[in-house]
Design goal:
Blueprint lengths: L2 E4 L2 E4 L12 H7 L6 E5 L27 H9 L6 E5 L7 H18 L2 E5 L7 H4 L7 E5 L5 H8 L9 H20 L4 E7 L7 H10 L4 E6 L14 H13 L6 E5 L10 H12 L3 E4 L7 E5 L4 E3 L10 E2 L5 H9 L2 H6 L13 H7 L18
Parallel strand pairs: 3-4, 3-11, 4-5, 5-6, 6-7, 7-8, 8-9, 9-10
Antiparallel strand pairs: 1-2, 11-12, 12-13
Amino acid sequence: MNQTETGTALVKKPLSPDWDPWDPWYTRMRKGRHELTGVEFTVTQLCNLRCEHCAVGEMLVKEEGVALPVETLIRRLEEVDTLQTLSITGGEPVLSPRVVEETIRPLLRYARERGIYTQINSNLTLPLSRYEDWVEDVDVLHISYNYRDAADFHRIAFEKYGREVPQKAGEKLFHRMVDNAKALSKAGVFVSAETLLSPFTSPHIVQMHRDVAEMGCRRHEVHPLYPSDFARGMELISLDTFRETIHQLVDHRDEGVWILFGTLPFYPCSDNPADRELWLRLHKEKNITVRNDPDGRNRLNVNTFTGDVIVTDFGDVPPLGNIQTDRLDTIFNRWLDHAEARRHHCFCPEARCTGPNILVADAYYPSTDFQQKKAQLSLETI
């Protein structure tokens, strides 16, 4: 169970490498099927940055329309009996005080009262005071960290901005992000920093990991670069480079920081012994986890402006329904019958694997039928 009752209050089990409620593994193993346990809301399409690796960059706007009432969002959440996690993303969710007051804070209050785990994705570049009033209600404050220094941040964060941004302005935001992460971590906030592995970041991953540790982040998430939206034209690293980068990181990591490898492009069914060796190593190492892909296995994304529901906030699968007319669990069951779900929802319990992320599989294994493969290793003796 993920929570217990103490009087009338719900006490959630602390997040740890042994308990990651966003991972669909637990439900799939216990129930024998995937269930909708997570909902992600895209609450804004505004952002003060235009990062070159942004997987939703083309959705960003300068002026935003009117969102659906938060009561509509909560009413749909109420219908999901299996709900365990609530994620909030954008754009930059904190950029508009109105969005914070009218959408984010009511959602966080609802989740707290129901004992649901919460995550908010922020670039953390706004003044610290913009976070302090509500951040205590968030279980995970998720940030991106793909930079060696302020100069890198300036180049990457304003790559798609459309006009020149002074170097000093970029440096100011970078240092504010770092200072905010340190201050919030010191105050007890669970800050999780994500790095996307690319030709630019992979040679510097050890230093970036040390920076994440110095900021006080409790977790460092390492993901592939998703070839979507702004990042569609960026170069992907080879699987050999990806594998070597992970080994290097693990060899030189700070063991006090939880490393989470998400949407890992290596699988226990691989015919390559090096892939299977890496899979085993990551499951043996202390304070390291491999998260099975939540998107479409236990989570849906909701656009709070249109009401459209999709598998992920940066996928290519068209909307599956709309919360103005459909229940979320109905939409999720509709997705489970979708051809793309059937193609990728394989399951090898002995290796703790629920199959690949759609974007990653299409990028690295376009001709592989994962339904015809089987794990060639077992973690049962670990």
